[in-house]
Amino acid sequence: MQQFNGFPPGKTRNIRVPHQFFSELMFVIDDLVELKLTLYCLWALQQQDGEFPFVTQREILDDEMLLRGIDPDDADHAREQIVVAMQRAVERGTLLRGTVQGDNGPEDLYFLNTPRGRNAIRSIEAGHYHFGGRDIPIALFAERPNIYHLYEQNIGLLTPMISDALREAEQEFPTEWIEEAIRLSVERNARNWRYIRRILERWTAEGKDHGTAQQPTEADRYRYIKGEYSDYIEY
């Protein structure tokens, strides 16, 4: 069994799940793939703006992360299972399917069975729905670890003081800077927050590409160990 490391501290991305999913739908879905597909669609439809959020069958069948979650060893078999699950979800009434004309022929669009979704289907049936395609397909992605998780995994335990310091740093510096500063502290065997903070302050004062982000030279290493950063180095 693959283990889950738990939800990280700090800010995390969330999606809204309708109450009816737990009070009604979850208890009648008797197929694991259909359950996964339903949750996937709840996520996917919240990743877009517009009057009628939709997901296409092609997007679902091309999402590698979803396919691995269905059958990690056989993508074609996973697609077959998903097609069946999509039909089950439509028959159950969780999803609504409408067919429109796309650039490459007919395209199946799936909507959540909500007032907006039902309005979309009525618009398609009346010939009023304009399908402009989508430049970037909807797809699952692995979330980058947030800085709290990254710190705990690479530097040490999250004490209340360190958590407060990271929270303040989030307000002062770009997240990418903090992540890279943590990585540099590991590479330079300076696994402590004071050193990470000094890197961030130096990038702010001198510019991030001034040299601190590059691989350190031997002279740099000596300066880090014996010079201005000596108080922050753990031998």
Account of the protein in words:
With 235 residues, this protein is mainly alpha-helical. The protein has 2 domains: 19-125, Winged helix-like DNA-binding domain superfamily/Winged helix DNA-binding domain (Arc Repressor Mutant, subunit A), CATH 1.10.10.10; 147-232, no CATH class. 52% of the residues lie in helices and 8% in strands. The protein is built from 11 helices and 3 strands; from the N terminus they run ααβαααββαααααα. It has helices at 19-28, 32-44, 57-62, 64-70, 75-92, 115-125, 147-154, 160-172, 175-187, 193-206, 218-226; strands at residues 55-56, 95-102, 105-112. The chain has a 3-stranded antiparallel β-sheet, with helices on both faces. It is elongated. The two termini are 38 Å apart. 20% of the residues are buried.
